[in-house]
Amino acid sequence: MIHSSRRPALRALAGAAALALLPQFALAADAKPRVALVMKSLANEFFQTMQEGAKADQKARASQYTLISNGIKDETDTAAQIKIVQQMLVEHVDAIVIAPADSKALVPVLAEAASKGVIVVNIDNKLDADALKEKNLVVPFVGPDNRKGAKLAGDYLAKQLKAGDKVGILEGVSTTFNAQQRTAGFTDAMKAVGANIVSVQSGQWEMDKANAVAAAMLREHPDLRALLAGNDNMALGAVAAIKSAGKTGKVLVVGYDNISAIKPMLADGRVLATVDQYGAKQAVFGIDTALKAIKEKKPQKDLPAVVETQVTLVTK
User: Fold this and answer.
1) Which three-class secondary structure state does DSSP give residue 282?
2) 111: Cβ–Cβ under 8 A, 6 or more apart, which residues?
3) Whether residue 116 has pLDDT greater than 50
4) Which long-range contacts (CB under 8 A, 24 or more apart) does 86-93 make?
């Protein structure tokens, strides 16, 4: 039995304990959002640029959010990227901005993140619509229209071609939406001019793999007129293959991404054109979408499906 004389003292102690907790709760409420940026291969200059852009933005807005950036070594290492997302959930981030290595395989773990109240935003490579629907998940895609961007480069190349000219397409990882869309954009442009697409093969976004694929295409089709590469890394591989085959100036090349390594090749004509999708800003656009959702306390299901960003043709 508690004596009445002890009750006020106990109440005072309880009140003091409650007050002691208040600053902690206030700090938690006012804490900066923690945003995880999960990218594909950091061996690719495009994603290095994306990461640098995000870090510069966070430094400029240090009072607004905390950034945790991660990337995989190999663009096809989907399992490693899934593990990164799982680790971000363990670290209780508030948002995940992701360039998925695979359009379907990342959906289940991102659905798990959303179910835990983490805001999920998709950049670079669009998640598969059917896979999202199956999980009843809405994830904003913040990025360019890849088909439209690739068609810009394809249309520019088409001015140098005539009907019947043979061309090859170096596709990115074939299971990814952006690779498929860029191939579709290139195909649109080639069909419009009547060019003959003799081969579409994956270079898996990588220079060395694209180099081997391009070399094989050149051997199989000695009269090949052009190679359309789904990113500039693969365009670099194509240029090297063309040089090895002794066909510099005879086989035209276009790329996509406008990385710094492609600029000298644009200048001397080894690459005809590329497409700038503003890699340094792309992650920032995704981060902005996530921060806006957090600030407005919007649930995942109420976020916009698409936030389209700019693409620009870049030539000599």
Assistant:
1) helix
2) 135, 137
3) yes
4) 88/36, 88/38, 88/113, 88/118, 89/113, 89/116, 89/118, 91/34, 91/36, 92/34, 93/34, 93/35, 93/36, 93/68, 93/118
Specify which residues 120 forms β-bridges with.
96
Domain count along the chain = 2
**pLDDT, averaged across the chain:** 91
Cβ neighbours of 164 (radius 10 Å): 10
Q: Is residue 24 part of a domain?
A: no
Give CA–CA dist 138/230, Å, rounded.
27
For residue 299, the one-letter residue type is P
What per-residue confidence (pLDDT) applies to 43? 85
Residues 225, 252: contact at Cβ < 8 Å? yes
Closest CA to 89 of 105, 68, 104: 68
Secondary structure of residue 199 in the 3-state scheme: strand
Give the pLDDT mean for 291-299: 96
The residues that bridge with 141 in the sheet, in sequence order, are 122, 306
Is residue 81 domain-shared with residue 202, that is, in the same domain? no
Q: What phi and psi, each to the nearest 5 degrees, are found at residue 273? A: -160, 160
Q: What is the CATH number of the domain that holds 250?
A: 3.40.50.2300
Residues 189 and 126 in one domain: no
Nearest to 183 by CA among 169, 197, 164: 169
In a domain, 22, yes or no: no
Q: Is residue 1 part of a domain?
A: no
Supply the DSSP symbol for 262.
G
Q: Which domain holds residue 186?
A: 146-276
User: Which pLDDT belongs to residue 226?
Assistant: 98
205 occurs within a structural domain? yes
> At residue 264, what is the residue type?
P
Tell whether the model's pLDDT for residue 6 goes beyond 80: no
